[in-house]
Amino acid sequence: MRSSAAFPLDLADWISHQLVAVEQALDQWVSVDASAHLEHQAPVELMAAMRYAVLDGGKRLRPLLVMAAFEAVQSGLLSQVASASEEAITVPGALEQATGPYQAALRSACAVELIHAYSLVHDDMPCMDNDVLRRGKPTVHVQFGQASALLAGDALQALAFELLTPDDASLPAAQQAQLCRLLARAAGCTGMAGGQAIDLASVGLRLTESQLQEMHRLKTGALLKASVMMGAACGHTSAATWRALQEFGAAIGLAFQVVDDVLDVTADSATLGKTAGKDANSDKPTYVSLMGLDEARAFAQNLKTQALQALQRSGLADVRALQGLAEMVVDRTH
Fold it and tell me: Could you read off the pLDDT of 299-309 as tens digits, one per residue?
């Protein structure tokens, strides 16, 4: 039999399908309803800043990686489906949305996006990167003030873990703990926050390639890798497949930052939706400043190859969405 990978995937259609579910869930869960009954309006205004930070913007790459990894592990191993008919392999996005595993994946997709949004709110503040443009609109601290932006980021971080621990016990306790651990480690001092600390401490310095790679592995790569692994954790897979997905996540996470470094010097602010040339103007170390533009581009392509090779080793029957996202990450123009 042929695996489902033998059938073409309309990536744009797949992304559109996933984004509808993610956007609806974010709109529902990042809601003013919880505090609307309070006499004091401060919590409602805080929620407005949170919604401004999360909704109506962004590529949603992290949620897409969660859903793609979830669908990949749901497809099963090629060795397990070898006796099945071609018709038995479902099209990505056609999973039953009422199932517990799907709900776990959707909550994970939204949780990782909330962590990402909180990090952007804080990164843009004057004490960090001091930026005024994000996703094509004024940054949260410009729109709502620094104090509200700080609190909005704090609240988004807390809400992410609330989503992973629902009151109705629709997610098994062990799965809740695993998802929380994956997300916390990716966001904390050994992940995103640690990488940001290295970034701030490296302004004006010339890092070695290994030092730069470690910084970006933590600052950007950790959360992207966690997105893949959280999606995988919403299903069942083998140890070998888990390792292959870890390798895929690590490669695509680093590739994303390399491409970001390239776009920072080749694209304009209108295209990026954020201030172009910010890294160079701030004298931050980047792959372009270390390698040069052509070598940085070649490095990103090499990382894409590594990611796709890892998927081949995964043994999963259907990795088309993950493949498509890997290509999109490296070949994107914004």
Answer: 999 999 999 99
